[in-house]
TrEMBL record:
This is Transmembrane protein 230. The keyword Translocase does not apply. Pfam families: TMEM_230_134. It is found in: Cytoplasmic vesicle, Autophagosome; Cytoplasmic vesicle, Secretory vesicle, Synaptic vesicle; Early endosome; Golgi apparatus, trans-Golgi network. It is a multi-pass membrane protein. The keyword Transmembrane helix applies. One of its GO terms (biological process) is axonal transport.
Amino acid sequence: MMPSRNNVTTGIPSSKVKYSKLSSTDEGYIDLQFKKTPPKIPYKAIALAIVLFMIGTFLIVIGALLLAGYITKGGADRAIPVLIIGILVFLPGFYHLRIAYYASKGYKGYSYDDIPDFDD
């Protein structure tokens, strides 16, 4: 008696595997391979973008008030660095928040995949 053949990779006996003939008109493609999975929303990256946006906005306002003279501590020598740091913190926060907003609204060309995520 001959031993039964098993599928080496899965261990399933070949008598239990069901095969079906492919249609000659589908060219080997199935609809499932073109279906997009729903995007994973990067909550941590969006939270970081919100924090950067808020800190940058705060520093820009403080720098503008220092430059205008409403806050008399320091002057222009302290206002310029505060403005530069505020702009450098504000820009990435605003950019990623904009992408997240447009992706949530479903605008064409915007996706949550464009926001870098923390791979935990």
